[in-house]
Amino acid sequence: MARPSMSVDDYVEKYGPHISDLPVTGWNSKPEPDALVETHCCFCGMQCGIKLAVKDNKVIGFEPWEEFPFNEGRLCPKGVKRYMQTHHPDRILDPLIRTETGFRKASWDEALDLVVSKIRAIQEKSGKHAFGMMSGVSLSNEKSYLVGKFARLALQTRNLDYNGRFCMVSAGGGNKKAFGIDRAANTWSDIPLASVVFLAGTNVSECFPTLTHYIWQARDRGAKLIVVDPRVTPIARTADYHLQIRPGTDSALNQALLHELIRNDWVDHDFVTQHCKGWEELKASVEKCTPEWAAEICGITPIIIREVAAVWGPAKTSFLMHARGVEQQIKGVENVLSLINLVLTTGRIGRPGCGYGTITGQGNGQGGREHGHKCDQLPGNRDIENPEHRAYICKVWGIDDSELPHKGLTAVEMFEAIHEGEIKGLLNICCNPLVSHPDTNYLRETLEGMEFFCVIDFFMSETARYADVVLPGSLHEEEEGTATSAEARICRLRAAISPPGNARRDTDILLEIARRLGREKYFPYSEPHEIFEELRVASKGGTADYYGVTYERIEKEMGVFWPCPEIGHPGTPRLFEDKKSYQPDGLFHMHVTAYRPSFEVPDDEYPLYYTTGRSVFHYLSGTQTRRIKFLVDNFPGPVCEMHPKLAAKMGLKHRQLVTVETRRGAISIPLDVTETIRPDTVFVPYHWAEKLAANQLTVRALDPVSKMPEFKVAACRVRPATPEESVRLRKDYAALKQEADA
Ligand SMILES: Nc1nc2c(c(=O)[nH]1)N[C@H]1C(S)=C(S)[C@@H](COP(=O)(O)OP(=O)(O)OC[C@H]3O[C@@H](n4cnc5c(=O)[nH]c(N)nc54)[C@H](O)[C@@H]3O)O[C@H]1N2
Ligand SMILES: Nc1nc2c(c(=O)[nH]1)N[C@H]1C(S)=C(S)[C@@H](COP(=O)(O)OP(=O)(O)OC[C@H]3O[C@@H](n4cnc5c(=O)[nH]c(N)nc54)[C@H](O)[C@@H]3O)O[C@H]1N2
Ligand code: SF4
Ligand SMILES: [Mo]
Q1: Do 136 and 177 share a domain, yes or no?
Q2: Atom 23, ligand 1: which residue's CA is nearest?
Q3: Residue 103: beta bridge partners?
Q4: % of the chain at pLDDT higher than 90
Q5: DSSP H or E run through 125
Q6: Res. 380: pLDDT tops 60
Q7: Which candidate, 71, 66, 28, 21, places its Cα nearest to that of 46?
Q8: Cα–Cα distance, 16 to 664 (Å, whole number)
Q9: Residue 41: CB within 6 Å of ligand 3?
Q10: Tag placement on the chain: N or C end, fewer CB within 10 Å?
Q11: Residues 202 and 239 in one domain
C-alpha cells in the first residue's frame, strides 16, 4: 500500500489556500496501514472524499482521495482530524444504566430489557404517542430510513423528529413552496461558471472550507462576489460588496433589491410571465420598498443596495447560496423565499452557470431529510398527511393506513410537550440538545423531568449524562451505507472498522429493540444494503426518487445525483433544465415576503443584538471535536466578538472576561475585540455545554411554517464578569483543555 509521499508542508502548499490558510499538522505520522478505505468525512454537508488508513481494526490516519471529484483531496482541519475519534479513550464501550451515584456498566441484555420494559410501561399507561424519538442527520440514509420506520412501526409513535429542525427546515420550507422540491437546484460545478456569486448568511470559509475552492475559481474568471452578513467573515473580506446588515433584516434588503430590479427593468419578462406564478402580486408588494426604506431597517446605506442591484440585475450568469444566517429565524422561510424571488425575477436558474441552492449543513442533512425521520414526512420526501403518499408507503411496509401514525410534533414542540409532561419518555439517537436546542436552561429542566430517557451515542454527550440508559452506538466509519451531500450527490460510506469493545452498530441496536418489542416482521434485514434496497422502492415516485441508484453505481460513478427514477437513468445534477418546477402546475411560485421584525429586538434594557454560529475548528454540539487536542488548542472555548467602538464605549478590553445576558440566561466568556462585527451586535459560537453554552441565551420562538428556532437573533447586554463568574470560567476553560485527548 502506498505511503503518503507528501510532507505536511507539501500538503499545505498544495491545498493550503483552500483550507482557509489554517495549519494542518500531524496527518501522516502513522505506521504502514493494512488498508486504505475510500469513504467520506463524517462532518459537514460537503461530504468530502477521504481515504481512511486502517490497521488492526483501528483508523490510524488518512490520505487525500484525489480522484473524488468534489474535493479532489482537499480537506479542512476537522476533516484531517476526524479519524482520531474511532479509538478515543472516551468511546463508550458498554451499555450504561443510571444508578443513585452515576452510571454502571451493564450487559446488552439487561440494558435492552430495561429500555423495552420502560417503553411498554409508558405506552400502556399513557398511550403510544407518550413515547417520542429524536434523531439526527449525521446518520446515513439507511439509518435515517430505519429510524423513520422504527419510530412509526416499532415504537408506533407519531412523535418522531430530528435535528434538521434546528438546521435545514426553513430552506426546505421555502424550496417546497417555490419549487415543489427540497434540493439545491445545481451542483457546485456551476459555481465557477457564474459571473456573480451571492452569499447570504453563510460563513463558507469556516463552515464549508472546501466549497470556497469553487468560489475562487469563479473569482479567477472575474466573477463579482456579494456577501450579506452582520460579520466580516473571511469570505466577506474578499467580497466586492459586503452588505453588513443588522441581524434579522434580510427580507427587507431583498425586497429593496427586487424593487430596484423592477425599477431598472432587470427582469426576465419571458421567464416570469411564462414560467412563474405570483409575479403581479410580488411586483405590487415591493412598490414602496425603496433602498432608502430598507437601508433604515438594515442599518446600511441605500447606495450599496443600488450598487448590488446593478451587479445582480443585468448579469448573464449567477449563483446564489444561503445558509443558516438567513434560515435560523422566525422569518426563515420568508427570508429564503425573498432570495428565491431574486433568482426567479432574473430567470437565472436551470442553465449552466445559473444556479441557486441552500448550503445544507450536516453530513447527511440532504439525504436524512428525504427518507422519513421528519415528523411530517415519509420516504421519498412524501407528505405524511397525503392519502396517496400514505397508501404507497403502507403498501411497501405491508400495513394498513390505520397502522401508520399521522404527523407528530416538531423538535422544539416535542421537548415542550415533554416539559409539560404530555410526552413521558424519549429515545434519542444522534442529537445533543443540551447544547444545540434554544434556551438550554429550559431544556435541562425538560430532561430532568422525564420518566424514562435513553440515548444512543458513541461519546458521553452532555445530553447523555441525563439519560437512564446509554447505549454505545457506532461512528460513521463503522457501518456501510450512503449519505447525500449538499449538492444532492448520493455518496457511498464504507465500513472501515467494526465498533470497539461492546459497542454495536446503530442499525443492530434499533433492529434488536424492534425485535424485543415484537415487531421484527417489519424489519427483515440484517445489513444496511438490504435497507437501501427497500429505501429505493419506498422512494420511488416521490420527489426524492432514489430508485435507479445502487451501491455499485455510486461506487463506479463516484456519486449519483437524485432524482434518479429508473435503473439506467443518468441522475439529475441540474434541476429545472426544462424550465419546469416540481409543483403540480409546473410553475415556479413567487411569494410575497413582507418584512416583519424579529421575535426579540434590542431595547433600553437589552440594547444589543445577540447572534450565534460556528468556528472552523469545532463541529455542532462539539462532542466530536472538543475531544481532539489539535482543534481545542486552536479554539479552546467560546468568546464574545465585539466591535472596538462598542468595547471602547463600554470601557471593555480585549480578552477581558465579560458576562453576556439575555432574558433567559447569562454566559461568562472572554471578550474578543474585533473589527469584523457590527458595533450593535455581538457573536458567540455555540459548540460548548452547560455554563459555556451560547444557547442559554437564545429564544424558543419558532418560524410558523418550518418550526425552526430563532438562533440568529435575540436582544442582549454585556457587562464585566464578577470575580465569582471569572473563577468559574477559568475552571470551565481548564476543563475543556483536559477533555481533549493528549
Ligand atoms: N466548522 C464547522 N463547519 C460546519 C458546522 C460546524 O459546526 N462547524 N456545522 C455544519 C452545519 S450542520 C451547518 S447548519 C452549517 C452552517 O453554516 P453557516 O450557516 O454558514 O454558519 P453559521 O455560523 O451558523 O452562520 C452563518 C453566518 O450567518 C451570519 N448571520 C447571523 N445573523 C444573520 C442575519 O440575520 N442575516 C444574515 N444574512 N446573516 C446572519 C453569522 O454572522 C454567520 O457568519 O455549517 C456546517 N459546517
Ligand atoms: N445557538 C445556536 N444553536 C444551534 C445552531 C446555531 O447556529 N446556533 N445550529 C443548529 C444546527 S444548524 C444544528 S445542525 C444543530 C446540531 O445539533 P446536534 O444534533 O445536537 O449536534 P451534534 O453535535 O451533531 O449531536 C449529535 C450527537 O450525536 C452523536 N453522533 C454523531 N454521529 C452519530 C452517529 O452516527 N451515531 C450515533 N449513535 N450518534 C452520533 C454525537 O456524538 C453527538 O453527541 O445545532 C443547532 N443549534
Ligand atoms: S469541509 Fe466538511 S466534509 Fe469536508 S473535511 Fe471539512 S468538515 Fe469534512
Ligand atoms: Mo446544521
Answers
A1: no
A2: 613
A3: 98
A4: 89
A5: helix 108-126
A6: yes
A7: 71
A8: 42
A9: yes
A10: C
A11: yes
> Can you state the percent helix, strand and coil of the chain, rounding each to 5?
35, 20, 45
pLDDT at 17 exceeding the cut of 80: no
Is this prediction's pTM over 0.85? yes
Full residue range of the structural domain in which residue 502 is found:
114-166+364-561
C-alpha cell at 414: 416535542
| Omega before 565 within 30 of 0, i.e. cis | no
C-alpha–C-alpha distance, residues 595 and 591, integer Å: 12
pLDDT band at 88 (very low <50, low <70, confident <90, very high): confident
- For the chain, the residue count is 742
User: Concatenated DSSP letters for 283-334?
Assistant: HHHTTT--HHHHHHHHTS-HHHHHHHHHHHTT-SSEEEEE-HHHHSSTTHHH
- Same domain as 371, residue 349: no
Nearest ligand 2 atom to the CA of 463 is: 44
Determine the distance separating the centroid of ligand 2 and the alpha carbon of 615, expressed in angstroms: 14
What is d(CA 367, CA 140) in angstroms, rounded to the nearest whole number? 8
CB-CB neighbours of 272 under 10 Å: 21
Q: Relative to the CA of 231, which ligand 1 atom is closest? A: 42
Pocket test for ligand 1, best of 242, 249, 614, 695 (most atoms within 8 A of CB): 614
| Mean pLDDT, rounded, of the chain | 94
At 500-521, the pLDDT tens digits run 999 999 999 999 999 999 999 9
Same domain? 206 vs 349: yes
pLDDT of residue 30: 56
| Cell output for 108 | 446488552
